[in-house]
Write a structure and sequence with these properties.
about 120 residues; mainly alpha; about 50% helix; about 0% strand; globular
Length: about 120
Amino acid sequence: GVSRLLQYPDPPSYGQVMEKAADVCKRSLQTLKLDLAGRHGDVENYAIWGPMCSFECLDSDILHLEAMEESECNCLELSPQPEDEHYRVEGEFCRKNSGRLMCEVLDRCGVWDCR
């Protein structure tokens, strides 16, 4: 998975791996959008399958779900709150889900199935 791609002097933390996986997932969707810029019509499902079913997007989703299960909190509760130093947007933790990233980047919203 993603942890083997990270280059930190010390082994990365669970949070670093989770954050990096979400960042790489989003970047792969942005790259797909840029690569197909100028073509007519929406991005085809077969083109989306690659990024959405990549180790990075799958690992990101798994790690976020595990964090919610382990903490017994939902994604809103795990997101930085307005009074927190690192607050940027409401529900930031929720927005790291690959389906929400796909919706944000490609305007294609819904459930994705990587079978």
